[in-house]
Design a protein that fits this description.
This protein is an alpha/beta fold. 42% of the residues lie in helices and 16% in strands. Helix 7 (132-139) links the parallel strand 3 and strand 4 (144-147).
Length: 358
């Protein structure tokens, strides 16, 4: 049997082709009895909409391009899942591209997605500076929202966690626990999340110890760097390692255990993002939880606003409230703390207030 058409559904339901189109597209209100007959006929015939034909008529493909830095970072699959769900609820499909932290490849993927006539773009830029030209050019052509990281003010709408507030939660917790010889293990380069977390540490760590802001080791967002960073800083015997993300924290914890260090008795370890591995480590890693579902919902909302209103108007920058998740890697009295215990996750603080910048 050939493809079922709107005309076939109209014949079986006893309605006009125009009425069938309105019911199935949801473009105009139709009486309840008429809508029921149309849907029953469509279901009985196995009708499926022809998205290519609809795109030609409406000049909309119903697709959104998503470009991210590295799918192997466990934070991003969780975010992609939430984005896929929220965009699907709006009737949009997602085309995914992984640039492997390469701004040149990122620019090529953006160009490719635009050539496929995506309606809009979501981009997690690989680099704040080197990604800017391609992102700005794309934002001039289609609605574009930056997620998790930025490319500088005014480039495009953006939504991200408040990295400064998240780092303040970590430092306040360590100060209350009496930690003073604190060291930051971060990522080099100009990805905005890395730079913001590094700057927030430098701004706040001096309250623990005047020398703390200078105790910084930079590599990348990886487990391997976490292990190597411990070898770099451990001779100075820090009593807390503040890691810029959970992958670094996992690697640091592994290496500390190989060295026989007592975590958290001798040294505390904290992360950022709250990926699944943070809770599964032994001990579990104290970390800053990003509101992933809210991040996806806000990005979709900003995108929907641009698609409805056009690409003009002022850019919006939204910062979402993080929260601290306290686990055994930093709390001496937490259940399961020590070298081998796996404590249950417990929220140690109410989320800080979110702020919206325009």
């Amino acid at each position: 049997m050939g493809d079922v058409t709107l005309r076939d559904v109209a014949r079986v339901s006893g309605c006009s082709v125009a009425t069938v189109s309105r019911v199935l597209a949801g473009t105009r209100p139709v009486g309840a009895e008429t809508a029921r007959r149309v849907r029953e006929a469509a279901d009985a015939l196995g009708y499926r909409p022809n998205h290519a034909a609809r795109a030609l008529r409406s000049r909309s493909t119903g697709t959104v391009g998503l470009v991210l830095p590295q799918i192997t970072n466990p934070f991003y699959p969780t975010l992609v899942r939430e984005l896929t769900h929220v965009l699907h609820a709006d009737g949009r499909a997602v085309l995914l591209a992984d640039c492997d932290d390469d701004p040149v490849a990122e620019a090529e993927y953006i160009s490719d997605l635009l050539s496929r006539q995506v309606d809009a773009l979501l981009v997690i830029p690989a680099d704040e500076e080197r990604s800017r030209e391609a992102v700005a050019a794309a934002a001039a052509r289609v609605p574009l929202v930056l997620m998790d990281r930025g490319c500088g003010p005014g480039i495009a709408d953006s939504v991200a966690v408040d990295n400064t507030a998240g780092m303040a939660l970590v430092l306040d917790h360590l100060a209350a626990a009496g930690r003073r010889r604190v060291c930051f293990l971060g990522a080099a380069g100009t990805a905005s999340a890395a730079a913001e977390r590094r700057a927030a540490y430098a701004a706040g760590a001096g309250a623990l110890d005047p020398g703390a802001p200078d105790r910084v080791a930079l590599g990348d967002f990886s487990v391997e760097w976490g292990r190597a960073a411990v070898d770099e800083v451990w001779p100075a015997r820090p009593d807390a390692l503040v890691c810029a993300n959970d992958l670094i924290a996992v690697g640091a914890l592994q290496r500390l255990q190989q060295l026989g260090a007592d975590v958290p008795g001798e040294v505390a370890v904290t992360g950022f993002d709250d990926i699944p591995m943070a809770a599964l480590s032994a001990p579990g890693i104290t970390t800053v939880r990003q509101p992933v579902a809210e991040l996806a919902a806000e990005a979709a909302r900003l995108l929907g606003r641009r698609l409805s209103d056009g690409t003009g108007g002022s850019r919006r920058a939204i910062r979402l409230a993080p929260e601290l998740v306290l686990r055994g890697s930093s709390a001496r009295d937490a259940p399961g703390s020590g070298r081998f215990g796996v404590p249950p996750a417990a929220r140690s603080a109410e989320p800080v207030s979110a702020s919206t910048l325009t």
